[in-house]
Amino acid sequence: MVNIAVLGYGTVGSGVVRVLTTNQEKIDKKAGVPVRIKYVLDLRDFPGDPVQEKIVHDYNVILNDPEIKVVVEVMGGLKPAYDFTKAAIMAGKSVCTSNKELVAEYGSELLELAREKNVNYMFEASCGGGIPVIRPLNSSLTAEDIDEVSGILNGTTNYILSEMTEKGSDFNDALKEAKALGYAERNPEADVEGYDACRKIAILSSLAFGKTVKYSKIHTEGITKITPEDITFAKEADMAIKLLASAYKDVKEDGTEDYYAMVAPFLVRHGHPLYNVNGVFNAVFIHGNMLGDTMFYGSGAGSTPTASAVVADVVDAVRHLNRSLYVFWDQDELTLSDNGSHVRPFFIRVPAEKKEEAAKLFNAEKTVESSDIPSEAALITAFMQENEFRKKCEEAGYVISSIRVNV
Ligand code: HSE
Q1: For this structure, is 38 an active site residue?
Q2: What does pTM read for this prediction?
């Protein structure tokens, strides 16, 4: 038998208990040995909940128990999760986590430490909830030179945008629902301002490119500035607004490489595979030089989908108790280039009387009108450099809002 401890009995922690209890027999068979939760660490007590008999309030109980081979860290945040994770690894215990904040900040360091201590640090649940994407990056795609990772990486914002688009819901009401469904972060600013997606793309691109992509260096915009008017015009243009996170490498003619990363709302055209990724679903594209495109799709947030990925890591950790699995993620920083030179079309809303003027200035490929908002018009500009676009907006002075168009 292998004993494990769960740190945190919140949304994901309770999901981990549920997954292990519901699928116990199958999990034991797949792990090769019975896997049992011995402790659950939480500041609170849970009288009446069967977990109560396992609740401990002192982390040292877990740390000093040689029977605990795997620690599940699902507390979230950097403190005390970083110290707890480090201490567990130092004590020769593997750690499985869903904590994207911690992995984005200290992932390469903790992996290095785990390697030294011959244990594993696993974080499948940190990106895309229940979607298997970390493991494919680490194992199934190792023959590839990956040049792009991109997609929808936050369930809360995708849920909000879908509700606003499909049902005309109000932003705050949709966010409230996302919280009630267990999708949102404790502080949902991380979701709606794009920070959560930013950490996830930092983790995925670090694994894809093999060096540390610092999340603090990634240009990040959230969805708080998206209005019902933007959504109305997007629908008229037969497009959907999605919060996209992307990272890619551009190989120049002289063979040198530039790396780019960004999180921002984009307009996605009808017919694009991401157009129909709605609600809490996430989708991740990975492009490799031999394979071409591959796409991973599934539940991107929520208690049991995320917990399922955590428990899958536990099974893997149990199968490799005395062997540290190699993960290609160097501590050296990967320098990101400025996004200003990117060329793409942009969607803009302008006052109705400026429609023709704007169409000329931005060399519009399409103009859109809506009978619901007769005072405005929307345009899709020609392809242009982001820097040039910003300059033109400033020059015009009448652009009400702008969103990048995905190409
Ligand atoms: N708040 C996150 C999301 C949870 O909505 O995607 C899953 O990481």
Answers
A1: no
A2: 0.97
